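Before a colleague's protein record goes any further, I have to sign it off. Would you go through it and say whether the fold makes sense for this chain? Take the sequence as given and treat only the tokens as open to question. The record follows directly below this note.
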Amino acid sequence: MTRTKTILTTLAAVTVAATVSLAHAQDTAIAKHACKRPEVPTRTASESAKKAFNSDVEAYSACISKYVKEHQKLADDHIKAANGAAAEYNTAVREMQAQIEKKE
């Protein structure tokens, strides 16, 4: 392996490590949902308390669903951006390797 190819391989490893590190750092900044989990009423609870519970469960479900959809959309956007960056990098490395091989 030539010195230049070794440098490119090392650069690729460093880039991957930095990307993983950055992704991990960003993961810790994601806010937890603010959805309120309803309390299950007792067996002897009034009918209105049971209806309120059912309503609260529906609101909790809607809140969680909204949070999940929003974060899945963000994740999809990040995956697309990451894949685009990786494709760009791979193209650049192939082009650099071709240029190096022409000069050798």
About this structure: The CA atoms of residues 94 and 100 lie 10 Å apart. The radius of gyration is 25 Å. The chain is about 80% helix and 0% strand. The chain has one domain: 3-103.
